[in-house]
Design goal:
4 helices; single chain
Length: about 120
């Protein structure tokens, strides 16, 4: 039988390389799984915040009053309102187009935000 140690060297080297490759791939997969878990947690946090914000908005919309109801309430409390003069009026620089662009920029940052911004 041929028991030359040089015959075992390529087999041992190939085994070491294969084990090292499998170990590196395993560590890489575990790191990717951890990163995906963090991303899922972040997305769940964003989703929870959006759901809470949506509930608040739905509540506010359902509790809106008509101008007639507001007028009756103000008359009942004897609150007198008058039109402001020109020097009392405040001009806002933001046009509706700029606000729509801001919503679109927000949608680019979060894919989940597309659900709430697309129709505006």
């Amino acid at each position: 039988m041929n028991k030359n140690p040089n015959n075992y060297c390529p087999k041992i080297l190939a085994t070491i390389l294969m084990v090292t490759f499998v170990a590196v791939m395993y560590v890489n997969q575990q790191a990717l799984i951890y990163q995906m878990g963090l991303k899922v947690k972040q997305n769940n946090d964003v989703y929870a915040k959006l759901v809470d914000h949506n509930k608040i908005l739905v509540y506010n919309v359902l509790n809106l009053r008509s101008p007639v109801a507001l007028e009756r309430r103000l008359l009942a409390k004897e609150v007198e309102l008058s039109m402001p003069s020109k020097w009392q009026v405040v001009k806002i620089d933001h046009s509706p187009k700029k606000l729509v662009l801001n919503y679109k920029n927000l949608a680019k940052k979060s894919p989940l935000a597309n659900l709430f911004v697309s129709g505006r």
